[in-house]
Amino acid sequence: MVRAVLLFILKLAIVSAALFILWRGELPGAGAFWPGGVEQFWLAWQMALLRWLHRLLGMNAQTFNDAWLFARGYVLSVVPYLGLMIVGGPLSLRERLVRGLYGLGIIALWQVATPLVLYILRSHYGGGRTFFIGVFPIFMFSYALPFVLWVVLSRGRIEQWLAQHHPPTAPAHQT
Q1: pLDDT at 143 over 90
Q2: Higher-confidence residue: 83 or 66?
Q3: Closest to 15 in 3D by CA, of 95, 86, 88, 116
Q4: What letter does residue 128 receive in the DSSP assignment?
Q5: Global pTM?
């Protein structure tokens, strides 16, 4: 079991590193081979949608931009989610694609909703301590979202994988 978990972690680290390089479009220390990488496209459609929502809802431009910049760092959650879907559990290629797309859709919705929620909280509480206390759980959930989605969308398969790699235990003695 320990060997299987360590192998899983090693595979996840290698795949995530490769995905991160594609996401950012640069090799550490070697410079950009694709300026902006995939991230530029992900951010472009999100910003276009958010600008439309911002105008539709009549939001203050400066407060909205502050909320967007504050939440922008969480777009990276796509990388660990895709890494988990690629290496995690015995899923068929079709299951990986379908569940991967479901998860990306949920992450995309979360990443569009987060700046809107931050805008509302900042408009209501300002930028003080109460605001930061209110947004802390949102950011913690943003960090956990890739793992939570992977577990939820792959639950049955993860259980099968664990059953295959977990040694059988001896029955307890009854006295």
Answers
A1: no
A2: 83
A3: 86
A4: S
A5: 0.78
